[in-house]
Amino acid sequence: EKVLDRGATAVAHPNIALIKYWGKRDERLVIPYVDSLSMTLNIFPTVTTVRLVPEGQADTVMLDGTSASGEQRQRVIAFLDLVREMAGRTEPAAVDTRNSVPTAAGLASSASGFAALAVAGAAAYGLALDPTALSRLARRGSASAARSIFGAFAICYAGRGVGAAADLSSYAEPVPVAKFDPALVIAMVNAGPKPVSSRAAMRRTVGTSPLYRSWALSSKADLSDMQAALQRGDLEAVGEIAERNALGMHATMLAARPAVRYLSPATVAVLDSVLQLRRDGFAAYATMDAGPNVKVLCHQADAARVADTVHGAAAGCSVVTARRGPGARLLIGAE
Ligand code: PMV
């Protein structure tokens, strides 16, 4: 088949929220209920190429070398439709995306995935978007992706109002943090796909959990405490706030009907080992997303010790250490 020349390749890294996003107030526009704040990582990049193909062909979506199907393919095509609508274009596209992290295992593959797709897709279709607009676009794929447009620390606003006003005001932006460069030790206790998608789990939590509202409220206080702690470069405070915010989010899920439980016995074993590290005098704090894996925030000087300890806590878990990383960027293609 003849392939048009227009194509673009982008790279983006996952991010881990220190203040979590959980729950959408508008599912179609992907507008969160709460503001969130994250650290973009320097590991597990996603590299995505979008090439325009001649009219009449179907969109194709390759994920790690195999043709995507079902829900995964649908989400990418819906995203391309949005980019095409914004660009006033109609050409179909061939999307090739490579994750270096297990997909859908609560390791933020959707964040790096949709951030890379937003940057590559906008460039391929000739859309010149500023970082805020790119972040709003990435949000439509996955709200956590809005934050991966930026490196290091980023805050994502839930936005104000409804409809177009909400869409315009919900985006991420960098949080300038001068001298805070912690390690994030990731304990992968299970890299398989999660049992319930975060989309479905959020819907159920918002719809049925009696704890959701109070967590969302306490999250506001957590966010302002977190911003102050980051500015001070205070790892103990950052870690404590991140840990309570994440445990609170999981509490909202556990109280959903029926319960959404991502935490496994191995997760709890790792959490116990983090408590033990603290008793032994190490600053180590845990956060968990929509999956059983645990991310432990600590000083870089302690990272090897923390990695050893969590590795010993859960049989067969693999451990990798990250730190703050770069924002999404175009590698090849038209600006
Ligand atoms: O990957 P998403 O955008 O569907 O949502 C994931 C949400 C959490 O990872 C659990 C928290 C967060 O803010 O990243």
From TrEMBL:
The Diphosphomevalonate decarboxylase-like N-terminal domain, residue ranges: 12-161
GO cellular component, one term: cytosol
Ranges for domain Mvd1 C-terminal: 185-312
Domain of life according to the entry: Bacteria
Single GO term (MF): diphosphomevalonate decarboxylase activity
Gene Ontology biological process terms from the UniProt entry: isopentenyl diphosphate biosynthetic process, mevalonate pathway
E.C. number: 4.1.1.33
PANTHER family xref list: DIPHOSPHOMEVALONATE DECARBOXYLASE (PTHR10977)
Name the record gives this protein: diphosphomevalonate decarboxylase
UniProt source species: Actinacidiphila paucisporea
Organism ancestry: Bacteria, Bacillati, Actinomycetota, Actinomycetes, Kitasatosporales
